Amino acid sequence: MEESKIVQYFEGKTIFITGATGYLAKIFLEKILRVQPKLKKLFLLIRAEDKRSAEQRLHEEVLNTELFRVLKEKYGADLCPFLLSKIIPVCGDVSYENLGISDSKLREEMWQEVDIIVNSAATTRFDERYILFGVGQFIFQEFPHELNNDMNYL
Ligand SMILES: NC(=O)c1ccc[n+]([C@@H]2O[C@H](COP(=O)([O-])OP(=O)(O)OC[C@H]3O[C@@H](n4cnc5c(N)ncnc54)[C@H](OP(=O)(O)O)[C@@H]3O)[C@@H](O)[C@H]2O)c1
C-alpha cells in the first residue's frame, strides 16, 4: 500500500495503544502524531497507581524523550495543546479484568470511540514466568464497534 494511503487511513481515527511506555509503541506514537495530525484521539494504556501517575509516566518516559525532538521543533509552543487535544492516558493493566480500567465511564467512552487497537503490552524479560511472557505481541487490529460491549474481546 502507498504510504500516502496509509497516512490517509488514520485521518479521523481513534486509536487505543497498550504498552504505551514501551519501545515499539513510543515509535508508533511519535510517527503517527508527526505524519497524521488529523487523527482524532489516542487512548494510551499505562500501568500506574492512578491517573496522575499515568500522566507523569507519559510525560517522563514518553513525551519528554529525545524521540519527540522533531515534533517539538515542528510545533514549538503549540506542541503541548496539540498533544493535550489528542492524547488521553489511561491507567490500566492488560492482565486484569477490563484491562484494569476501573473508570467505567471512560471504559464506555473508549469502547464506543476506538477504531483501532495497537496491542504492544508485553513483558519482554526473558527470565519472566512463561505465562506472563506470553501476554503480548505487537498487534494492529481494527476494532469492530458491534463488539464494543464485550470487554473480554482483547
Ligand atoms: N522491540 C522489537 O524490535 C520488537 C520486534 C517485533 C515484535 N516485538 C513485540 O512487540 C511487543 C512490544 O515490544 P517492545 O520492544 O515495545 O517491548 P517493551 O519495550 O518491553 O514494552 C512493553 C510495554 O508493555 C507494557 N506492559 C507490560 N506488561 C503489561 C501489562 N500487564 N499491562 C499493561 N502494559 C504492560 C510495559 O509497561 P511498563 O513500562 O509498565 O513495564 C511496556 O510499556 C512485544 O510483544 C515484542 O515481542 C518487538
From TrEMBL:
InterPro entries: FAR, FAR_NAD-bd, NAD(P)-bd_dom_sf. It comes from Forsythia ovata. It catalyses: a long-chain fatty acyl-CoA + 2 NADPH + 2 H(+) = a long-chain primary fatty alcohol + 2 NADP(+) + CoA. GO terms for molecular function: alcohol-forming long-chain fatty acyl-CoA reductase activity. This is Fatty acyl-CoA reductase. Belongs to the fatty acyl-CoA reductase family. GO terms for biological process: lipid metabolic process. Residues 17-130 form the Thioester reductase (TE) domain. Catalyzes the reduction of fatty acyl-CoA to fatty alcohols. The keyword Lipid metabolism applies. Keywords: Lipid biosynthesis, Lipid metabolism, NADP, Oxidoreductase. Pfam families: NAD_binding_4. Its EC number is 1.2.1.84.
